[in-house]
Amino acid sequence: MWLQRELTLNPQRRGFHLITDEVIAQLPELRSLNVGLLHVFIQHTSASLTINENADPTVRGDMERHFNVLAPEGAPYFQHTYEGEDDMPAHIKSTLIGVSQSIPITNGRVNLGLWQGLYLCEHRDHASARTIIATLQGE
Amino acid sequence: MWLQRELTLNPQRRGFHLITDEVIAQLPELRSLNVGLLHVFIQHTSASLTINENADPTVRGDMERHFNVLAPEGAPYFQHTYEGEDDMPAHIKSTLIGVSQSIPITNGRVNLGLWQGLYLCEHRDHASARTIIATLQGE
Amino acid sequence: MWLQRELTLNPQRRGFHLITDEVIAQLPELRSLNVGLLHVFIQHTSASLTINENADPTVRGDMERHFNVLAPEGAPYFQHTYEGEDDMPAHIKSTLIGVSQSIPITNGRVNLGLWQGLYLCEHRDHASARTIIATLQGE
């Protein structure tokens, strides 16, 4: 079985945001799969998707603060500067973190670890809604 | 054909460890696939999976030393500190490296390059066994 | 439907290079898929694949400059030095960026965002041709 759906995520402030429930709620068909994979792909170059700790919001805050150190604004060698100070760091973070995740499906559920959740990583200061292509396959 | 299996990896010391053989040995069914994909997913937020050089152990040592620079302990802006100095850097490394890998299967074998191997990246000082969900599909 | 093909990419200078068209041209079968996934996997440990901005070449230049800061040559703790100053940073960049990407297929086309393209990230100073295993599946 293959199913593909375009999902729209509400605009979020710059930072790391848990979206596990928001994504799964839009894919009720995954309950019918005994075994499979869910692929989520964000169609942008200044946001990204990761899987990390789903409980303590300070983890998401520390992520934002640390990725701002790894990809700081205003590096003297940046030439791509006309879209704002936050733009080139956003592209770098997107490549460091990645634009897709594949998650196993087991017995009708995403088989994440107990402490894992899916994050939208929003790297722009003033972001619009973001589009994800979700592709579900399995049997 | 779909096959999914939960694999338990022995506890490892903090660092980067080759696990290609340990994982493949637990998936004898992949020998029957002419073409396919193996997806390996680690169900943790303080460990990760990557593919890199499979021969010289100094590569794995240098990886550990360099990721300790990229995500150092004791950053003054860390708020998530109650699980130990190594915990927040472990979460960051997990997102930098990623929790899953997909590997092509060709003629009954994982089609890695000559110098490639699968690594478990253990980011905690005192880790327990780690769980991987392996999902095999193909024909 | 499954299809797998080994693609050879022309040697490139060190840096980030758009290869979307070069890859798709070698996979005409994807036009026949209504829904699916394209998995591209580079069989090397000193090059990588990412998806990022497809328009302004300064983005690719800034990427190269910034990853040279994130994984600099000549770190005093590097022990794996006998293959050249650029070798260990290349391994680190490969793990930071990743060796594979999965891209949704929709109505016979790769369903990238408007501004997204596939990059070959070449991390060696004097690289040879690079091999990618492309795996296409869908219906």
From TrEMBL, chains A, B, C:
Highest taxon of the source? Bacteria
InterPro entries with a match to the protein in the record: UPF0047_YjbQ-like, YjbQ-like_sf
Q: Which NCBIfam families match?
A: TIGR00149_YjbQ (TIGR00149)
Protein family: Belongs to the UPF0047 family.
Q: What is this protein called?
A: YjbQ family protein
Q: What is the lineage of its organism?
A: Bacteria, Pseudomonadati, Pseudomonadota, Gammaproteobacteria, Alteromonadales
